[in-house]
Design brief:
Length: 150
C-alpha cells in the first residue's frame, strides 16, 4: 500500500509540484465507476491532510460516494488552467492521481470521507524548449520515471 505520505517521503519535489497543480483552484475532477461499469465524472475537492493522507469527501448519499463503496477505484484530475496562445511554454502542467478509495467513518453531518491509496501519480508539462511534453509518473514499488513525447 502507498499513501500520499509515502510519495512525499520518496519524491518530495515531485509531490510538491503535483500538490501545487491540485491546489491551483478549489475543484478538480473525479472519475468513478457506475453500477453498470460505465464512467461517472464528478467535481470534487482534494484534501492533502496534515497527517499525510490524501482525502476526498462528498455529501451524504452522493452517487460518487456510492460508486466508491461499490468499486473503490478512483481517478483524480487537477483543476485545469488555460495556456496563453502566445506562450505555450508557460503552461504549468496537468496532474492526475489514480488509486483506491478507503472509506473512513462519516463526519457528524453524515457526509462521506475517503482516503486514497495511491496506484499512480502523473504530472505532464511542456518541456524546455516548448517543442515536447515531459511526462513524469510515479508508481508504488517502481518509483519515479520521466519520459518525453515529441
Amino acid at each position: 500500500m502507498a499513501w500520499w505520505s509515502d510519495l512525499v517521503e520518496s519524491e518530495p519535489e515531485f509531490a510538491a509540484r503535483v500538490r501545487a497543480r491540485f491546489q491551483v483552484r478549489k475543484h478538480g475532477t473525479m472519475a468513478t465507476l457506475r453500477r453498470d461499469g460505465s464512467p461517472r465524472i464528478s467535481g470534487t475537492e482534494v484534501d492533502f491532510a496534515a497527517d499525510g493522507q490524501l482525502r476526498l469527501g462528498s455529501m451524504a448519499g452522493a452517487l460518487k460516494a456510492l460508486d466508491l463503496r461499490r468499486d473503490p477505484r478512483v481517478a483524480l484530475h487537477c483543476p485545469t488552467e488555460d495556456t496563453p496562445e502566445d506562450d505555450p511554454g508557460s503552461w504549468a502542467g496537468d496532474a492526475k492521481i489514480a488509486g483506491v478509495a478507503h472509506e473512513e467513518p462519516p463526519a457528524e453531518d453524515g457526509s462521506h470521507r475517503f482516503r486514497v491509496e495511491l496506484t499512480e501519480v502523473v504530472l505532464t508539462r511542456v518541456g524546455d524548449p516548448p517543442d515536447h511534453l515531459v511526462i513524469e509518473s510515479w508508481h508504488p514499488g517502481r518509483g519515479l520515471h520521466r519520459r518525453e513525447r515529441r
